[in-house]
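Forum > Structural Biology > Help requests

Title: Can anyone predict the 3D structure of TetR/AcrR family transcriptional regulator?

Hi all, first post here. I have the sequence for TetR/AcrR family transcriptional regulator but no way to get a structure on my laptop. I'd be grateful if someone could post the structure tokens.
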Amino acid sequence: MNQTKKKKKAILEVTARLLRERLISDISMDEIAWLAHVSKVTIFKYYENKNKLMNLVIRKELDFMVENIQKIIATDADFHETFHQIYHFKIKQIRLMTDIFLQNMMKQYAANPSFFDEDTRQIQHLVYQELFRKGRAEGQISEDYTDEDLFLYVDIISEGMKSIPLEILIKHSKNLTEMFLNSLKKRE
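Reply #1:
Sure, ran it for you. Structure tokens for TetR/AcrR family transcriptional regulator below:
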């Protein structure tokens, strides 16, 4: 690994660790530089500013989740089992992330909704589009609901969840998941 890659890796690893331990406002670029054994100038050379560095590290965590969700969707499991596997994977990841990391992520998103850039949002939509396709093929999602309808519904739920404490969401997530799955089929 060349020096540039080593430095970038060290900066990202230190930043990820700090994001799990402290709020963004309590993390300084000087500290990241010192812990990563690089100069502050080096950090700004690669990442432009603190906000962009924080967002990049958080997005890397989200990209990891998207990659794993894609693998779950690609299995032979039926729609309901796939959805439940995704649910369990997300809960496991949320528990691994630490409360502080999740607070940092939500703070970044609340302060700047474009924090999830269009590419990231597009990838997430493609992943869930595959899940919706699987659900429709099995008759678990009504053909009357377009992808646009489903994404709007998911976005509305996601926006509403931002104001609810994480521990309450986790406590009720299984029931909320079942309610969501039951709402996808058209009533006869």
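The radius of gyration is 19 Å. The first helix runs from residue 3 to 21.
Shout if anything looks off.
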